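Protein modeling request. Please complete all fields; requests missing the sequence field cannot be processed.
Requester role: graduate student
Desired output: 3D structure, token encoding
Chains: 1
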Amino acid sequence: MDVSFSGILSYIKTTAEEKLKNNECTPADLCYSLQTFFAMLVETRAMAHRDKKDVLIVGGVGCNERLQDMMRTMCSERDGTLFATDDRYFIDNGAMIAYTGLLEFVNGIKTPLEDTTSTQRFRTDEVQAVWREKEELVRGDKNVAAAK
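Delivered output (148 residues):
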């Protein structure tokens, strides 16, 4: 399961000062809200839905040590492992983008340089991941293929 929560921390950073100044919330309220958001991320239960043992956290929100601790606990309870990249690679998802490019290349998807574009806020679930379809065929995962 690819889950994207792009912009959550950026939104809080840009609005927190104003909300605190206008007494719309307290610092404790903001922190509690983030903890609730992190709990929602952990509760996506990708491990259970996809019968996976491991979780990879990437992106800006992945820098948060509390979220990493919560995910590590969930993984541990399911005999899995949490993988979190080095902080240098969290912020712009550069490692995730590079890896996706490598998967496309290995699977025969090549785009001439003059045809390449960049789309800000491109959703990860909008990418045609042909390598996943191949994995499902190899595994014979009819449930996953039928769910598409």
